[in-house]
Amino acid sequence: MPKDVSVEELKAKAKELRLNILKTAKSAGSGHFGGSLSSADIFTALYFKYLHVDSEKPAMPERDKFVLSKGHAALAYVPCLAMKGFVPMESLESFNHYESAYGMHPDAGKISGCDASTGSLGHGLSIGVGMALGDRYQNLDTKVVVLMGDGEQNEGSIWEAAMAASHFQLNNLIAIVDRNQFSIDGNTEEIMSLEPLDKKYEAFGFKVIRCNGNDLAELDKALAEAWGEKEKPVCIIARTKKGFGVKRFQGAVEWHYGAMDVEMYKEALADIEAL
Amino acid sequence: MGKDAGTVWTVHDANKMTSKEIYGRVLADLGERNDKIVGLTADLAKSTNIGIFGDKFPERMFNVGVAEQNLFGIAAGLAATGLIPFASTFATFASLRAAEQVRTDIAYQNLPVKIIATHSGLSFGTAGTTHHATEDLAVMRALANMTVVVPADGWETAKAVRACIDIPGPFYMRVGRGFEPPLHENEDFAFEIGTAITVKEGSDITVITCGIPVLQARDAARELEDDGISVRVINMHTIKPIDREIIVQAVLETRRIVTVEEHNIIGGLGDAVASVIAESGKACAFTKVGIPDEYSVIGFPEDLYARYKLDSTGIAETIRELLGKEIEADEDWTDED
Ligand SMILES: Cc1ncc(C[n+]2csc(CCOP(=O)(O)OP(=O)(O)O)c2C)c(N)n1
User: Fold this and answer.
1) Would B184 be classed as within a structural domain?
2) I want to staple A43 with a disulfide (CB 3.0 to 4.6 A). Which of A80, B83, B115, B245 is the partner?
């Protein structure tokens, strides 16, 4: 059951998460800024309001499951897990360092609260279908949430999983697409067009919800609706801006991945503070 | 100036370029003289540097989005129409994600698709296991018709890219991600697919290696020379077909062989060499250096190379260990009882 958390509280958390993303990237030396900042509000809403998870019992069977299919957003995911108490806040300083539990992509074997090791795109929705089937079979009243990239939608495996999700009538499965318009090489519509993405998911048997994924009020509404769905798997198409919150990164395809100098870091922090 | 392909950079530039950058440039160059060459990638035009070819020949470049299985299926189709497709993505995705497309669509039908896979081995260090490619040689070696090459530096990369066009069937080559100091000083050396290069002569022990560790092995060998240890270093840039002759010769002449590779110790160069040694029927002290049968930790490539003894210090250590190993333990043999 979603917790009683106001949109204002969520906004404050999202800001904190973005600051932690920047700090973590600073000690890591570089990072996937674009897709981490675009999805920060989604992480916030999920972890601070919707997902039933407990850092004291990270493996409890009745937890909601979360799969970060776009694994390169570990730079948002791990700080978010730290803010929720799954891993120590100080440990974020080791991100990308030798023998660290955290690199560019999350390792479920090393990160408390992380349900799947990801990084190779296009795997998450299948894993989510398996989790949703497994929980349903075991009579667990849970939700399984899978966060995907929009470029990631190019992978055929996503659509095999989508077909299975509606075939198995997985009303406990929620797919979220971080629709930030860019992959690595450019704009998704120029590289390999996805639109009409909503119609595609509808045709595959999903209930589709569209929202602004960088607006917590809209996201909150979309997630509430998804949580209430009783019949179909849900796909939330969350329109976002790649690099949201940092002016230099916002909508700039080259900042999918990069390294900041001290000046840029200060500038980026100031941008987030001013949000 | 690089003369054999009319290339446009100087030695000076090549010493500053990554192997994948050199690949992109050579391919762009070849494209000018061979209009059957086409390029493909899966949202990694920039990362693999095949984009250099694409910028020059946009009408001959196909970016299929993040979809590796589709990538290699399409490459097979293009090849079936008589074209020579060069397909580039990260080595892990080429060899694992699209393994069946590569095997059934390309290798089975013996189509001339040239797979130039970047971010090989541990070269994408901090990206972790999902982006490390430490099984690709095992997979590619096992595919009939496939030629498998691991160049030691940018110069070899350039030569291999040119040479692979003349191979009628499929071709797999892995190159790293970053800048590694070149092994060769210039391109004045013979490079033939299937013929290993003796980097250094030696008579006590032989190191057979490929890719980034070749330079490290040479440095280790030079160091050991001061202690009177004579190490032969063989650059086995072609894993398949492997140069059997040079291996058997090393067995007969040095009796001790160390293989070093940026790959799981199962299935790669070491196992290819081991088969040749076993089939030769000669006794030989032998050890494989590589990633043990486990998933690598996170870290910068240099730290990981040191951890897995793929750097010159580690290679020297292994050489000393193998030199200390007793091999003529004939008294253990029980067949004469
Ligand atoms: C199977 C696979 N192919 C390629 C990559 C390399 N890669 C990492 S991120 C990325 C672009 C992803 O774009 P998108 O899904 O839109 O992510 P976002 O923009 O949200 O960061 C690519 C191609 C990968 N991680 N996995």
Assistant:
1) no
2) A80
B24 touches chain A (CB under 8 A): no
In this structure, is residue A94 part of a structural domain?
yes
Q: How many CB atoms lie within 10 A of CB B335?
A: 4
Binning pLDDT at 50, 70 and 90, where does residue B3 land? very low
Q: Which of A97, A98, A191 sits opposite B63 (nearest CB)?
A: A191
**Residues of the domain holding B95:** 15-174
Residue B264 is encoded by which pair of tokens?
Answer: 């799981």
Higher pLDDT, B120 or B3: B120
Q: In this predicted model, what pLDDT tens digit does every residue of B241-267 receive, in sequence order?
A: 999 999 999 999 999 999 999 999 999
Looking up tokens 């210090």 gives B313
CB atoms near residue A7 (< 10 Å): 16
pLDDT digits (tens, 9 = 90+) for A75-103: 999 999 999 999 999 999 999 999 999 99
- The phi and psi torsions of A208 (rounded to 5 degrees) equal -105, 130
Minimal-distance CA residue of chain A relative to B94 = A120
- What residue of A is the nearest CA neighbor of B133? A120
Domain of A43: which CATH number? Answer: 3.40.50.970
Q: Give the 3-state DSSP-derived string for B36-90, with helices as H, strands as E and coil as C.
A: CEEEEECCCHHHHCCHHHHHHCHHHEEECCCCHHHHHHHHHHHHHCCCEEEEECE
pLDDT at B2 over 50: no
Q: What is the pLDDT of residues A117-153, one digit of tens each?
A: 999 999 999 999 999 999 999 999 999 999 999 999 9
CATH number at residue B153: 3.40.50.970
Contact B31, B60 (CB under 8 A): yes
* Same domain? B208 vs B80: no
Q: Check pLDDT > 70 for residue B5.
A: no
Tally of domains in chain A: 1
Nearest by Cα to A106 from A120, A125, A93: A120
Residue B173 belongs to what H/E stretch?
strand B171-174
Q: Residue B234 in 3-state DSSP? A: strand
Would you say B205 and B229 are in contact if contact means Cβ atoms under 8 Å apart? yes
pTM over 0.95: no
pLDDT per position as a tens digit, A254-269: 999 999 999 999 999 9
Q: What is the CATH number of the domain that holds B258?
A: 3.40.50.920
Q: What are the tokens at B32?
A: 């000018």
Q: Output the residue whose Cα is nearest ligand 1's atom 22.
A: A184
**CB-neighbour burial class of residue A144 (10 A; exposed 0-12, middle 13-18, buried 19+):** buried
CB contact (8 A) between residue B67 and residue A156: yes
